[in-house]
Amino acid sequence: MIVGVPREIKRDEYRVAMLPVGVDELVRAGHQVLFEAGAGLGSGITDAEYQEQGARIVPTAADVFGQAELIVKVKEPLPQEWPLIRPGQALFTYFHFAASRELTDAMLASGATCLAYETLRDPQGRLPLLTPMSEVAGRMSIQEGAKYLEKPQMGRGILLAGVPGVAPAHITILGGGIVGANAAKIAAGFQADIAILDVNMDRLRYLDDIMPPNVNVLYSDRHTIRAQLKLADLVIGAVLIPGARAPKLVTRQDLKVMKPGSVIIDVAIDQGGCIETSRPTTHSDPTYMDEDVLHYCVTNMPGAVGRTSTFALCNVTLPWVMQLAERGIDDACQELPPLATAVNIRRGQVTYRAVAETFGLPFAN
Ligand SMILES: NC(=O)C1=CN([C@@H]2O[C@H](COP(=O)(O)OP(=O)(O)OC[C@H]3O[C@@H](n4cnc5c(N)ncnc54)[C@H](O)[C@@H]3O)[C@@H](O)[C@H]2O)C=CC1
Ligand SMILES: CC(=O)C(=O)O
Q1: CA 299–ligand 2 middle distance (angstroms)
Q2: In the UniProt record, does the keyword Nucleotide-binding occur (predicted)?
């Protein structure tokens, strides 16, 4: 199979979808790998390093899309890339379809098979291709929150840890999954005062067992969320209903009870965001003020720490790329149930129920 890796063109996206070891494995198995020139540079990997493993470097994205049967990417294709996608081609990347009707329509029209990293489920029900980036974003959310709570960044002027005689910051984390647990772990190290809210009681019991005493776990309902918003200096949005648009747990009206200059990091923005006032931002222009609350809603947080994130992502994607190349796209998806759960769109039809329901589109099983 010809596998292609284009350069990521999203703003401030420094990840690349394959490491030199991935090229080595594919070439050893008899496949060809095409790389767009410079694709790895944001993560500190040169064309020569890929070439040494047998990759063919081509000058443009059009060369990659024009020849490859399987495109392996990091972020969703952007409008400039849409015309390059061919019917029958397969794309393996983050899509987050529920956040964008335009992207969904474009991929339906393309005739391609779209395998989304974020919905691939393993036999234990976990999301192994989302997990490493959620670990990165969860950990990053606290360092970004700490920065934006500083007064020159428009925050309240609060130090997460406090000092002897002055209370630490209160951090409310909506959703206690991978992002939430990683955010709590880092925030706990800062000695902040933390509450994690979730609707999954088993998860809350588990977090209660493993977290230090400055982390409390609470059941997530309207009243508890509102009570927390009054206390919070920093809110982390970390809920997920896989494949679906994120539920809006906080309305514009709710923000009125928050302290002026408090900060929201809505990590769930890639699925539309869990705060009514959230809208996507970029690393170059990450924040805006609404209702006196500073919002940070960057849709590719791990892109800023591209080198760490590239290694973390490629460690988990490569085995699935190998399966797709070895078995062929359709056979791999029929024979391996986790790959079937990644297929969101196939040849003009929506094949992921939550995406179909989000947009009222027909669902094809
Ligand atoms: N902005 C970015 O760059 C990145 C965003 N993400 C996103 O972060 C979000 C969270 O991801 P993960 O932690 O991996 O998901 P996860 O599935 O591990 O955790 C989500 C949690 O939300 C909980 N939840 C669902 N409904 C809830 C409600 N009403 N109230 C409270 N909790 C609720 C679930 O029970 C679950 O524990 C996803 O949208 C993911 O795509 C992940 C990585 C990077
Ligand atoms: C999960 C995701 O959207 C990202 O890592 O950018």
Answers
A1: 7
A2: yes
